[in-house]
Design a protein that fits this description.
Elements (H helix, E strand, L loop, with lengths): L3 E7 L7 H17 L2 E7 L1 H8 L6 H15 L6 E5 L5 H12 L2 H5 L2 H9 L8 H16 L4 E4 L4 H17 L8 E4 L27 H9 L20 H9 L2 H12 L5 H27 L2 H30 L2
Bound molecules: tryptophan and iron/sulfur cluster (SF4).
Amino acid sequence: MALKRILSGMRPTGKLHLGNLHGALQNWIELQESGKYDCFYFVADWHAITSEYSSTEGIKDNIVSMVIDWLSAGLDPQKSTLFVQSAVKEHAELFLLLSMITPLAWLERNPTYKEMKSELSNKDLSTFGFLGYPVLQAADIIMYKAYGVPVGIDQLPHVELTREIARRFNFLYKEIFPVPEPLLTSVPKLLGIDGRKMSKSYDNSIYISDRGKTLLHKISSMFTDPQRMRKSDSGNPEICNVFTFYGLYSSPEKVKEIDVECRKAGIGCTDCKKMLAKQIAEKLNPVHERMDYYMNHMNEINSIIEEGNKKARKIAQQTMSEVRAAVNI
Ligand code: TRP
Ligand code: SF4
């Protein structure tokens, strides 16, 4: 039996941070490694333009550096199809046709739309493209007749909308599209080094590519339990971001040990962070080795993307001929 297809996309933000790694990418890799799915992962470059239309100059470089991070972290082009949205023009055609059948009200009530618009209030997002981008996302997903869409909770409304659009298409024209399921990714709450949400725009991120002195320095400057002023004060790991990282980068025994030692002031934050830096460096070592390899073999990156684009295009072309026939166009 053919494997169930799953599909997910990421905006090309350039190099990825540990929040991205543990939020989405790690999950993509696990789905790939489970052997249960035919995985399609793509760079959503048209999506990036919906909010970054006034500064598009970095997009091409960002695509490449993001794909390098994907491959370094463990996405494997032998197992997963990796492609770039704008290289498969069929997405635009399906987007156009879906936009004809999507009621405006479905878009206007979308909570992610409202949230992003107020969050990014420094940009003028009263555009047609920004309101309509969930329709583009629906096209991305149903184009490949995906069974499942791995996403974080913020993207759930978009998958819900995709389901409604797929049903509406099937009802109006012909049963072409399976109604996709969201595969919810649990996202650990990783904060940046300054204690705010880890985000490129806050300049507080630890990147997948950080190593050596940079990594050590960033981890050494991480905020810890704010109530713990002196080494002799006992600490509370539950409210310490450093401790959250331990949960991801060391053994359960080590986590337990830090928990105990922190609470009885047996270990100071400086030492605690030094040890954490070592654990993270060790875990990221194979990732950095792959990164070095790809940095020295940039032509491989291009051919991986080209191959993925070709595979995606083939399916998209097939879907579009069914769609055109159904719509009588
Ligand atoms: N909108 C998603 C985001 O901002 C990215 C995305 C675009 C996506 N198309 C998709 C995710 C299709 C899943 C499936 O993160
Ligand atoms: Fe956080 Fe470690 Fe300091 Fe405890 S000892 S407050 S876990 S950094």
